[in-house]
Amino acid sequence: MFHHPRMKKIPLSRVFVNDDVRDAALRALNSGSYILGKECEAFEAELANYIGTKHAVLCSSWTAGGFLLHHAMSSPLRRETGLHRHR
Predict the structure, then answer these.
(1) How far apart are CA 68 and CA 59, in angstroms?
(2) The pTM is what?
(3) Do residues 52 and 60 make contact, with C-beta atoms less than 8 angstroms apart?
(4) Are 48 and 54 in contact (CB under 8 A)?
(5) Angle, in degrees to the nearest 10, between helices 19-31 and 38-51
(6) What is the DSSP string of 10-50?
(7) Contact 35, 43 (CB under 8 A)
(8) Per-residue pLDDT in tens (0 to 9) along the chain, 87 residues
(9) What is the Cα–Cα distance from 8 to 6, expressed in whole angstroms?
């Protein structure tokens, strides 16, 4: 791959990892239930509290989250979710 000497690589993302994050990740992995497990539930609750909502939902990717949001926004039950205010 050609790399020009003056070109800089731009990172796609920067990951924040400290001891608390590392410990939580290891607890999730070691539990064998890192999808829909206790650590996920705890993180969703902390996130919801931090952003001031009743609930938060983790998704595997932005694509999955966008798909869920699209279906929630087009659902006749959206008034129950509070999503109608953001349309």
Answers:
(1) 9
(2) 0.60
(3) no
(4) yes
(5) 140
(6) --S------HHHHHHHHHHHHHT--SSSHHHHHHHHHHHHH
(7) no
(8) 566 677 777 777 888 889 998 998 898 889 888 778 888 899 899 999 999 988 899 898 999 999 988 888 887 766 665 555 544
(9) 6
Q: What is the rounded distance in angstroms from the CA atom of residue 73 to the CA atom of residue 61?
A: 18
Determine contact, residues 54/72, Cβ cutoff 8 Å. Answer: no
**Which amino acid is it at 70?**
H
* 8 A C-beta contact, residue 3 and residue 9: no
Kindly report each contact of residues 71-78 with a partner whose C-beta sits within 8 Å and lies 24 or more positions away, as own/partner.
none
